[in-house]
Amino acid sequence: MTALRIGVCGNGTVGGGTIEMLQSRAALLEARAGCPVVLTRVGARRDRDDCPVQDVPVERDLLAVARADDVDVVVECIGGTTLARELTELALNNGKAVVTANKALIAEHGNELLALAEAKGVSLLFEAAVAGGIPILKALRDGMAGNHVSGVSGIINGTGNFILTEMESGKRAFDDVLAQAQELGYAEADPSFDIDGIDAAHKLTILASMAFAMPLDFASVHCEGIGTVTPEDIQFAGELGYRIKHLGIARSSEQGVELRVHPTLLPNDALLANVDGVLNAVRLEGDCAGPTVYSGAGAGRLPTASAVVADIIDIARAGGNVVSSLGVPVASLEPVTSLAMSEVRCPWYLRLKAQDKPGVMSRLASCLGAEGISIEALIQKPPVGNDETVSVVVLTNAAREGDLRRAMAAIGSMDEVSDAPHGIRVDSP
Ligand code: HSE
Predict the structure, then answer these.
(1) Per-residue pLDDT at 1 exceeds 80
(2) CA of 406 to the centre of ligand 1 (A)
(3) Domain range 136-296, CATH architecture
(4) pTM (2 d.p.)
C-alpha cells in the first residue's frame, strides 16, 4: 500500500490541530484511509510552543512544500488570499491535491481554483472552510445529492454566536466576550471578519454554490454584522418570544436567489434559536429529504482539523481518482439571478424612540399602513426617570424590504420620533 504523503502549511489553530491528528492517530487514519497517511513536511514561518512538530522537516518557505517531491497533498492552513492563493495554485500546477480550510480563498477565488484543479486532474477539497467540525459540504455533496435544495440557513460564525449568547445569558459587554473568543482560538486573526459578517458571507457563498449549483458569487451576498445589536434589542426580542441570532440565509425561488447575512430574530422554539455559544448549525431544505439540521462546533483546533483530515481520507479512498468538495465539474455551475434586497420579503422588528404624546402610535401605524405593512405586535415601554421619550418596539407582518425601508424613513422623519427606527429582519422557517 503506497502511503499518502501530506505537507501541512501553517501551524496555527487549524494547521496545528491537523498536525496533532496526523501524528497522534496514524493507525486509525490508516484503517479508515486504506493506506498509511504520513506527515512528510510542515510549512511554518515560525515555531509555536503549542504545536510541536516531531521528526518532520519544517520549511520556512511555505512554497517549498508545494514543490517537494515527497508531498502528495498540500494542506493549506495559512489563511488570507495572497500567499494562500499562490501556494494553492503552485501545488495544483505541480499535480498535488490541495485540502484547504480557507473560506475566503474558496469564496473569492474558488471558481478559478476548481477549474485549475480539474485542468490538472487533481483534487481540491475544502470541507473545513464551512462550519468547522460539521461535515456540511459532504452532507450537501453526498447526502442531498438527489434533492433540489431550495434553502440553506444557519449560524455559521462561532465567534458571533458566542458573543450574542454571552451578551444575552451573561449580561456581558461585547468587547469582553470578543477578547475571550480570541483567547479560545475561535475568532479570525482580524476579528472584524467575524463581527462584520464577512466570515459568514464567505461560508454562505460556498454553501449557496453547492446548494444551488451556481458559481461562487461572494459579491452578491448582502452582509451585515452584529455590531448594531444592542442589549435592549436582545431583551425586547425576548419579550416578544424571539432570540437574536446572526444568520446566513440563501434561498432560491422563481424570482431568483437571495443571499444574505445579518442579525435575525428567530422564534424561541426554532431549532436554530437554541444553538448557543460557539456552536454552529445549518438547516438545509431538500425537496425530497425535507428540512434537515446539522449542528456542532463551528470553530476551534480539533473540530476544524477533523474536517481537514476527513478530506485527506476522501483523497486516499479515491485512489488515483479526482475528488472535489463540489462534486460536479465547475463548468456545470450555472449563473443565477440575484434577488435585490429591496425585493426580499420577511417580517421585521423595529425599535425607535418617540415622545409620549397622544396620536404618535396612530401616525406610526399610518406610515406602515401607507406601504401596505401590517403590525403583528407593538410594545411601548414606560418612560424612564425624567426622559420624555419612550422606547417603542414594532413587529410587522411579512413585508417587501423596499416598502419597509420607505416606511422606516417616513417614521424617522416624524417630529415626535427622536431616534430613527432600527430594524432587524425576522425569520420563521
Ligand atoms: N472565526 C470563525 C468562527 C472560525 O468564529 O466561526 C471558523 O471559521
Answers:
(1) no
(2) 35
(3) 2-Layer Sandwich (3.30)
(4) 0.96
